[in-house]
Amino acid sequence: MYNGKTIELPVLSGSCGPNVIDIRSLYNETGLFTYDPGFTATASCESKITFIDGDEGILLYGGYPIQDLAEKSDFMEVSYLLLYGDLPTPQQKKEFIKNITMHTMVHEQIPSFYRGFRRDAHPMAIMVGVVGALSAFYHDSLDIHDPRQREIAAYRLVAKVPTLAAMAYKYSIGQPFVYPRNDLDYASNFLHMMFSVPTEPYEVNPILSEAMDKILILHADHEQNASTSTVRLAGSSAANPFACMAAGIAALWGPAHGGANEAALAMLQEIGSPARIKEFVNRAKDKNDPFRLMGFGHRVYKNYDPRATVMRETCHQVLKELNIHDDPLLDIAMELEQIALSDPYFIEKKLYPNVDFYSGIIFKAMGIPTSMFTVIFALARTVGWVAQWKEMICDPLQKIGRPRQLYTGVAQRPFVDITERR
Ligand code: CMC
């Protein structure tokens, strides 16, 4: 009821999760907008890809629990699931892998693009540029209304982002770019492009490649988070897919989102020794101090992040495999985890270590520099972004995204001539 007028708004039910109030007629009927900064209670779209129940700590891709996928599946199967809605049959999996591996190389002119960047450029800055630049190289997959072109753009993105990511790393350390190897699986190929050099053979450690594959699975999609919503919003204007992914990478870069794994490691470095953990925990609890424990808390999970559970286990496996027992940063991380898990402030606010806390530690142990952490998150999330973008383009109800606002600026006033301004 508003201004004496009562209107009825339908309540829609999904297959899981809270019902939603359909407010599409609200403005026409009442002249009211809704106000929800940060979209904490707003469903921006209908989707069949990923489901999260933050209170219960549940994450499903296409209905399958993330723990099962991480344990029993692999990144190529999960990518297929996200893109096509079902796990592939053996034949479909074979074809999908062939389609991806056929696109792993990048255009030979792309290396010149890298050389335009400063050596010390952040690899995320490079990724924003080069992924967007793919639209200038692959004109034959830009027509978003052609399903075949959309599919090729999807293959290209999933296949080329690891190559571009490894190139960003190689460029930063002055080593030659390494071509992809299509006889290796997706995660092993990425490690090969990151760590091999032309002067000697490189054997991918299967435990590390398995850990990398799990990291990719766990980060592959997370429904309507900031970067995915950015991809959808950019794509809603019918922008080309490569430019939309570049927008997603830009949104992911922030420390409140994908940048948290890098920020978590930087925080561990700043803490410096287990003796100083208490001081930082106290700062995180101090209302007058903007400091937060990076790698803790989540907008949606108010229970343990199910990805963090898998990641924690993988983290311990990797540390054991690499025989790392006395890394001071890892000691700080493990002690911080224990303190935060038993501190009433974190317990009451349901602030658990999130996926980024553990992935940062694993990457560090693998010898991956901190500046590459968010790049690997972007690599994993590319398939999720592409799946969500494809779903949006095919949605008959899709419209250009155009939020409204609560204006609190000056109301209309007469123009003041410059000679009369005081
Ligand atoms: N350290 C200390 N206090 C915290 C933290 C933290 N990491 N996170 C939230 N709080 C407190 C916050 O101060 C607030 O307290 P109060 O109610 O007394 O004002 C309360 O918890 C709720 O915080 P919020 O900012 O309203 O929660 P949010 O849902 O808007 O923020 C978040 C979620 C992830 C941005 C936040 O927890 C955070 O900044 N965490 C650190 C960054 C991080 O690890 N981000 C990665 C998220 S997981 C990967 C991804 O999705 O990209």
SSE-based structural type: mainly alpha
Mean pLDDT: 93
* End-to-end C-alpha gap: 46 Å
Q: List unreliable stretches of 5+ residues.
A: none
Task: Summarize the biggest pleated sheet.
Answer: 3 strands, antiparallel
Question: Order of SSEs, N→C?
Answer: EEHEEEHHHHHHHHHHHHHHHHH
The domain count comes to 2
The name of the CATH superfamily of the largest domain reads: Citrate Synthase, domain 1
Catalytic activity: oxaloacetate + acetyl-CoA + H2O = citrate + CoA + H(+)
GO molecular function: citrate synthase activity
Organism: Candidatus Odyssella acanthamoebae
Pathway: Carbohydrate metabolism; tricarboxylic acid cycle; isocitrate from oxaloacetate: step 1/2
List keywords for this structure.
422 residues; mainly alpha; Citrate Synthase, domain 1; Cytochrome p450-Terp, domain 2; 2 domains; 3-stranded antiparallel beta sheet; two-stranded antiparallel sheet; 5 strands; binds carboxymethyl coenzyme *A; Citrate_synthase; tricarboxylic acid cycle
Quick overview of this protein structure:
This protein has 422 residues and is mainly α.
Task: Give an account of the 3D structure.
The chain has 422 residues and is mainly alpha-helical. It has 2 domains: 88-256 and 369-394, Citrate Synthase, domain 1 (Orthogonal Bundle); 259-366, Cytochrome P450-Terp, domain 2 (Cytochrome p450-Terp, domain 2, Orthogonal Bundle), CATH 1.10.230. It contains 18 helices and 5 strands. The strands form 2 sheets. It has a 3-stranded antiparallel β-sheet. Strand 1 and strand 2 (20-21) form a beta hairpin. The mean pLDDT is 93. The protein binds carboxymethyl coenzyme *A (CMC). The site of carboxymethyl coenzyme *A (CMC) has 19 residues, from helix 17.
